Amino acid sequence: MTSMINTVAVIGAGTMGIGIAQVAANAGHNVLLFDINAQALDTAKQSLTERLNKRVQQGKMPAQAATSLLSRLTLVHNMAELAPAQLVIEAVAEKLTIKQAIFNQLEEICHQNTLFASNTSSLSITAIASQLKHPERFAGLHFFNPAPVMKLVEVVRGRETAESVMNQLKALSLAWGKVPVVCRSTPGFIVNRVARPFYAETLRALEERIAAPATLDSVLRDAGGFAMGPLQLTDLIGHDVNYAVTESIFQAFGYDPRFQTSFEQLELVQAGHLGRKTGRGFYHYHKAAPLPDAKIAEKMPHNNSLLITARGAWQSLPTFAQLLRQNGICLEGSKCDAHKHPTLFIGDVMVMLTNGELASSQAQKNNQSVVLFDLSADYGKAPAIAISCAAQNSQQENQTVIAFFQSLNKDVIVLPDYPSLLNMRTVAMLCNEALDVVNKGIASPEDTDNAMCYGVNYPKGPLTWGAEIGWQNILNTLEQLAEFYGDGRYRANPLLRQLAAGHQTRFAKELQ
């Protein structure tokens, strides 16, 4: 099917437009690049030439390949010159009326079999196509920045999009070396919708003054296994952009508290502190000023003779179990422990994975000192671990637990007694949102996980991660958070409740 597409037109010579043009030209297509601004066209071509020359100089690309790629790129100054294209991809400003006007013109210029696609990240594909005579040939083709590097492409179906068009665009994306995921047109598609809690939970912790930005970022990055901390990432994206996406989705979902915007981030936008591009966001980006370090617990002496036992079922925490075994801690429990929460006893202290309940509440319930640790994608590889301690604990008991984790070669980040700490609540919310996407038929479980792994580099797809942790544990976490805060932000998705109850839903096999 992709052999039918020889010429690809790209409208918009900004960062995304020239990136998409590079992808298509690199795959052997003739590419027509159009922008209403002639200077933008020349700047884009020059920028691409410089990038390719740099790759050649670094030995990452043969000179002939760079020359050949550039020869397939033609700058055009009149939209009528796009008539030969079999596929037109639009990548202009996120304004519905502008995009509608462009495709109305294209419908008069291009052949009736030409495919139309928008690279929009936030506008409805159905709405853009609503003014067309043939909306069935229109779809979303959402690339991620930088387009030549990022693998993911969201192939978005509008209400009228023909199945044959979806199949062609998916096959074309594969031929371009991308990972296509298919979804229905919905606010935020997959990635920008499911990713909201990644930012929101850390922003909430910052607003509640749980820790400084560097420490919160370290919990997600160094303890949790995410590629970047959320505050680092929003500084990189730009707070004007990130806040606008959240606000757009918040409004589109009828001001659902799941997508609540952050006053902390709004203040940055209002102050003009937009992140790296302005030299200041959550962090200062001046050459003379290094970024601040996370607050790490001081080194404590570890008592090697201390009695440490492990009880319960550790299948939900395989990398933690492996770490314990590697350090000589036996996990063999009795049959009566087989279904119990995995628990360490370090001296007289009960140490468990957070589940949304405060450490102090658990200490009162168990009449025992309690320390909770946070979730991690891989406890063995993570350089740090985050914990919180019950108010009833003695200082010596807390220091004993800190020393134990330090003996496992971990930096220890001690947070206040905060429900679900940070990684656990973030992952639980990511799982909940991903399940909503699946439950409403927006995307398949596989495509939802692929979107989050290849679009935003999560260490695991949220559905894979949720199945590993256990759906009942995810549900318990959200229910505890909902009770603690008393709002609808943490309400559990119906599919999550079904999975936690062991119901054989239509997605059960895919979500095990």
Low-confidence stretches: none
Question: Largest sheet, order of strands side by side?
Answer: 3-2-1-4-5-6-7-8
Tally of separate helices: 20
Number of strands: 14
**Helix/strand structural class:** alpha/beta
**Proportion in β-strands:** 5-15%
Helix and strand topology:
Layout: E1 7-11, H1 15-26, E2 30-34, H2 38-57, H3 63-71, E3 73-76, E4 87-90, H4 96-109, E5 115-118, H5 125-129, E6 138-143, E7 152-157, H6 163-175, E8 179-184, H7 191-194, H8 196-207, H9 213-223, H10 230-237, H11 239-252, H12 263-271, E9 308-311, H13 318-326, E10 343-346, E11 349-353, H14 359-366, E12 370-373, E13 384-389, H15 395-407, E14 411-415, H16 423-439, H17 445-456, H18 462-469, H19 471-485, H20 494-500
Parallel strand pairs: 1-2, 1-4, 2-3, 4-5, 5-6, 7-8, 11-12, 13-14
Antiparallel strand pairs: 6-7, 9-10, 10-11, 12-13
Helix pairs in contact: 8-16, 16-18, 16-19, 18-19, 19-20
